[in-house]
Every structure is written in structure tokens, then in C-alpha cells.
Design a protein that fits this description.
Blueprint lengths: L5 E6 L2 E6 L10 H16 L5 E6 L3 E3 L4 H9 L2 H21 L4 E5 L2 E3 L1 H8 L2 E5 L3 E3 L13 H9 L1 H10 L2 E3 H7 L4 E3 L4 H13 L3 H14 L4 H16 L2 H12 L9
Parallel strand pairs: 2-3, 3-5, 4-6, 5-7, 6-8, 7-10
Antiparallel strand pairs: 1-2, 8-9
């Protein structure tokens, strides 16, 4: 496995990550999962990078887990299958969900299984009008394992989620928009420009505030409203001593454009 299965490119302050196994519809084998996590580790500590756009090469975003590799893990028993496949995939989507810099999926084509679960996990998503989604795991006798049984019901509601989880039927990008999986659907040739425009609109603001918002939302979704409000207060408190809050307030009072430093 060479490191070109997840391409990395800088466009201004935005990192473009491209899943790059087009002959396999960008199926997520173990090495690609691990490389994607390493890419995110590098991006997190790079102060030049403020946001991430994630897309796929060829006609797929990602067709999901690499079934041939996964089936070999299954043959070796439950403990190995859970460790190699389930825990690895869940760690990947959990990392994306809690990542402190905004991640925007640019869903360019097929987003089945793990590809759909990545789209559910990231902070924002834009889909091509040619994209196609599915939760097909039931077709091979398993439930989704990268978080799909948990995130999709939270996004779409229990009954709408179960329809696709239990049938394995495909659905369009417009339906993904209606279910809350993606933020918008755009013509295919406008996909990346739309994703980068969204990233640029976020990057006008304090990166520290963006990280605090992501943390508050991600942690707050799974607790009571009272606990969530406490998380919100804690994230605000972390901003009080920063230069960014001083700059933001000063710029607003002076009616000028703020110059955030991320400090």
C-alpha cells in the first residue's frame, strides 16, 4: 500500500484529501483507513490549515469497506473481525466527528456503507447531483459498523433511518439532503468550488471559536440538555482568555473586519 491512496493537497488554508482507489470505487481497506487517520493527525497540528475538504477520485466518493479484506478478518474469528474492522472504522468516523477543524465532505459519486457513514460523521457535506447513497450492509448479513446505526437515526429520525438500514435500498443526493445527511446538492461540476466556498466562509471567523462550537455540538448531542448547557458554558469559558475573543469584540465595537490569529 502506497501513500497515494489518500491524496493531500493544499488550497490556501484548506486541505483537500482525496480518497484514491478509483479502480476499487475508493473502498476503505485497512491501510487506507489508517492513512486517513494519519493525514488528520498531521492536519490537526498544522497551523496553516484551517479546514478540510474530503472527496473521492473517479466516479465514487467511497463504496464502503473493502469486503474482500473484511471477509478474511471474519474467517479468523469474532475478536479479530471486531478489532480489525469495526474498531478501526469506528475510530475513523469518531475522529472525523470530533475533529477540531471543520471537515466538509464533497460527495462526488457513490457513497455506500462506510462512504455514507463518513458523510454522516463529518461536520458538513455537499453532494453532487450525481451522487448516490446506500446503507447496503444488510445485503451481506451485517449491520453498519462505522457508526451508521447510531448517526443516521440522529440525523434522519428513527423510522426514516430504519427504512434504508433494513432494505439496503439506494437513495439520491436529494433524498440525502431531505434526511439531513448533506447540507446541499449542487451540479456536479460545481461540487468542489461549493465545498471550498463553504470552507472559506468558515475561515473568516476565529478558528478557536469554530473548534469550541464543534466540541459543544458533538459532545452535547449525546447528553441531556442540562449537561449540554454545561458543556456549552465550558467551551465559552475556554475562549474568555484568548486573543481571538478580544479581537472579535474589539472589531465589532469598532465596526472593522477582525483579524483572528487563533490564539
Amino acid at each position: 500500500m502506497t501513500e497515494d491512496t489518500v491524496l493531500f493537497e493544499m488550497r490556501g488554508r484548506v486541505a483537500l484529501l482525496t480518497l484514491n482507489r478509483p479502480d476499487k470505487l475508493n473502498a476503505l481497506n485497512y491501510a487506507t483507513n489508517d492513512l486517513l487517520l494519519r493525514r488528520l493527525d498531521e492536519i490537526e497540528v498544522d497551523e496553516k490549515i484551517g479546514a478540510v475538504v474530503l472527496t473521492g477520485s473517479g466516479r465514487a466518493f467511497s463504496a464502503g469497506g473493502d469486503i474482500h479484506e473484511f471477509s478474511e478478518s471474519v474467517k479468523r474469528g469474532v475478536d479479530i473481525a471486531v478489532r480489525e474492522f469495526v474498531r478501526r472504522g469506528q475510530a475513523m468516523t469518531a475522529r472525523m466527528e470530533a475533529f477540531p477543524k471543520p471537515i466538509i465532505a464533497a460527495v462526488n459519486g457513490i457513497a455506500f456503507g462506510g462512504g455514507c457513514e463518513i458523510t454522516e460523521a463529518v461536520h458538513l457535506a455537499v453532494a453532487s447531483d450525481q451522487a448516490l447513497f446506500a446503507k447496503p450492509e444488510i445485503n451481506i448479513g451485517i449491520p453498519p459498523t462505522f457508526g451508521g446505526t447510531q448517526r443516521l437515526p440522529r440525523l434522519a429520525g428513527r423510522k426514516r433511518a430504519l427504512e434504508y438500514l433494513l432494505t439496503g435500498d439506494t437513495f439520491t443526493s436529494q433524498r440525502a439532503f431531505e434526511l439531513g445527511i448533506v447540507n446541499r446538492v449542487v451540479p456536479h461540476d460545481e461540487l468542489l468550488n461549493t465545498a471550498f466556498d463553504l470552507a472559506d466562509r468558515i475561515l473568516r471567523h476565529s478558528p478557536l471559536a469554530a473548534a469550541r462550537i464543534i466540541t459543544a455540538v458533538t459532545r452535547g448531542l449525546n447528553v441531556s440538555i442540562a449537561e449540554g448547557l454545561q458543556i456549552e458554558a465550558e467551551q465559552f469559558a475556554r475562549m474568555v482568555a484568548t486573543a481571538d475573543i478580544t479581537e472579535g469584540l474589539g472589531a465589532w465595537i469598532a465596526r472593522r473586519v477582525p483579524n483572528y490569529t487563533g490564539r
